[in-house]
Design a protein that fits this description.
- The protein has 121 residues and is an alpha+beta fold.
- It is 28% helix and 25% strand.
- It is built from three helices and six strands; from the N terminus they run αβαββαβββ.
């Protein structure tokens, strides 16, 4: 019986952590932002779906303008799922939003550069 339980647990974990299944989390990547969208207006657009814990818009360091994308984090995963389902494709200040689940940024990992045989000739 104990072996059977362990087998079921392993299968469940494999399904949850499978690289082929889309990883859902509580952080959304929001693209298609108008230059006039600021963090407050982005939070206001998403707060009806749940407790927004963080909003971050990325700006160009030279011009100071929005780069057109940002991140919205929710307290709970189901709130993020609801927000993504409802807001993906909807317009915010005249521009349609493209929303996906944010991927964790890997830092410090090795960079692998493929080498072509015969020096690329």
């Amino acid at each position: 019986m104990n072996r059977n339980l362990m087998s079921v647990a392993r299968k469940a974990l494999t399904k949850v952590h499978s690289p082929n299944s889309p990883a859902t989390n509580n952080k959304l990547f929001v693209a298609g932002l108008s230059w006039s969208v600021d963090e407050r207006s982005l939070k206001d657009a998403f707060c009806s779906f749940g407790d927004v814990t963080e909003v971050r818009i990325l700006y160009d360091k030279d011009s100071g303008r929005s780069r057109g994308f940002g991140f919205v984090s929710f307290c709970k995963e189901d709130e993020a799922v609801s927000a993504k389902d409802a807001m993906d494709g909807k317009a915010l200040l005249g521009r349609p939003l493209r929303i996906s689940y944010a991927l964790e940024r890997a830092r410090g990992g090795p960079v692998v550069v493929p080498r072509l045989p015969n020096g690329g000739r």
